[in-house]
Specification:
single chain; 109 residues; alpha+beta; 3-stranded antiparallel beta sheet; 3 helices; flat
């Protein structure tokens, strides 16, 4: 796709959504792909995560999607993604974003 076309981000997002549609535990925003999991125990969670990750990698390979190794992070206990922090306790707003907003000066108009 040529540089500078205003619809390029929308088209790219549509292609990513279409390519990775139906994958459990996979969220896509632009070129950011999050593979997550859940389970009653750590073993269940790891089994779910490994299954979701293998499905993602198989799909990416079959669709000729190129994933950059240096940008990949696997099996993390905590992930910050699109302004949110995800942990085993759940998700909440990214503390750095909250601090930035809280420390903004009060409007004077």
């Amino acid at each position: 796709m040529p540089q500078g076309i205003s619809s390029a981000p929308k088209n790219y997002q549509h292609c990513q959504d279409k390519a990775l549609a139906g994958l459990n535990g996979v969220e896509v925003i632009a070129d950011n792909i999050l593979c997550c999991s859940s389970g009653e125990t750590i073993e269940d969670t790891l089994k779910d995560h490994n299954s979701n990750l293998l499905n993602l990698l198989d799909c990416a390979c079959s669709m000729n999607l190129e994933l950059k190794k240096k940008k990949s992070r696997l099996r993390l206990d905590q992930v910050t993604y699109m302004g949110n922090s995800f942990t085993s306790e759940g998700h909440r707003p990214d503390p750095m974003k909250v601090e930035t907003i809280a420390s903004m000066p009060q409007p004077d108009d």
